[in-house]
Amino acid sequence: MTNDQRPMTNDQRLNTESSPSFISPALPPQFMAENPHADRPIRLGIMASGSGSNFEAIAEAISSGQLHAKIQVLIYNNPKAKVLERANRWQVPAVLHNHRDYPSREDLDAKIIETLHEHDVELVVMAGWMRIVTPVLIDAFPNRILNLHPSLLPSFKGGHAVEDAIAAGVKISGCTVHLVAPEVDSGKILMQAAVPVFPNDTRESLHARIQVQEHQIYPLAIAIAAAGIHRRSAR
């Protein structure tokens, strides 16, 4: 995705900071911290390519006791990704797998699997991972890979979801956390948040508003996925 650095107007900034939202499904209080099936924190492997704002949101939810989880490792593919600074600050091990060093997506995913296994990861969290993953990775962690997309799927799949929503003239957009499947931006939907689209919205102002909700729903969706994993392992 492109990152236009033009400053937002005062109206756009107000819209970003104060716009209402709708999150579904609604979870009972303390669900994230008191999963009845969990006798230990779920072990996460986070994959990111950019600034890592969702990495930060997840780490903060864990630190505050809201989310019963532990980040085992960060895997990043961009040597200049700012998410590395966040990982260092949270004292999370970070491993660079530069996609340019691998002859194919499958080779990259095979190396990622090695790293995830080395760090004893149970649930893989793609938080701004800007590479298409292959069945090699999906099959290694079936129903255990989450992705976050800046639209209300199944609408506006692909890498230009925010721009596409504005171009289509929709009045409501949002974000989706879903299980990863071979088809891009598909798979079972775990959680969504809806936000309004305003007449003066740009890509930057709408994306900023969506990101506020991304930071809310990703820890919630991780808790939902973790509950399912713990239930299955307890059988």
Automatic annotation (TrEMBL):
Its EC number is 2.1.2.2. It catalyses: N(1)-(5-phospho-beta-D-ribosyl)glycinamide + (6R)-10-formyltetrahydrofolate = N(2)-formyl-N(1)-(5-phospho-beta-D-ribosyl)glycinamide + (6S)-5,6,7,8-tetrahydrofolate + H(+). (6R)-10-formyltetrahydrofolate binds at residues 105, 130-133, 147. N(1)-(5-phospho-beta-D-ribosyl)glycinamide binds at residues 52-54. Pfam families: Formyl_trans_N (PF00551). The active site is at residue 149. The record marks 185 as: Raises pKa of active site His. Residues 46-222 form the Formyl transferase N-terminal domain. Residues 1-22 have a biased composition (Polar residues). Pathway: Purine metabolism; IMP biosynthesis via de novo pathway; N(2)-formyl-N(1)-(5-phospho-D-ribosyl)glycinamide from N(1)-(5-phospho-D-ribosyl)glycinamide (10-formyl THF route): step 1/1. Keywords: Purine biosynthesis, Transferase. One of its GO terms (molecular function) is phosphoribosylglycinamide formyltransferase activity. It is an enzyme of class 2 (transferase). Residues 1-35 are annotated as: Disordered. CDD domains: FMT_core_GART. InterPro entries: Formyl_transf_N, Formyl_transf_N_sf, GART. HAMAP family: PurN (MF_01930). PANTHER family: PHOSPHORIBOSYLGLYCINAMIDE FORMYLTRANSFERASE (PTHR43369:SF2). Catalyzes the transfer of a formyl group from 10-formyltetrahydrofolate to 5-phospho-ribosyl-glycinamide (GAR), producing 5-phospho-ribosyl-N-formylglycinamide (FGAR) and tetrahydrofolate. Belongs to the GART family. This is Phosphoribosylglycinamide formyltransferase.
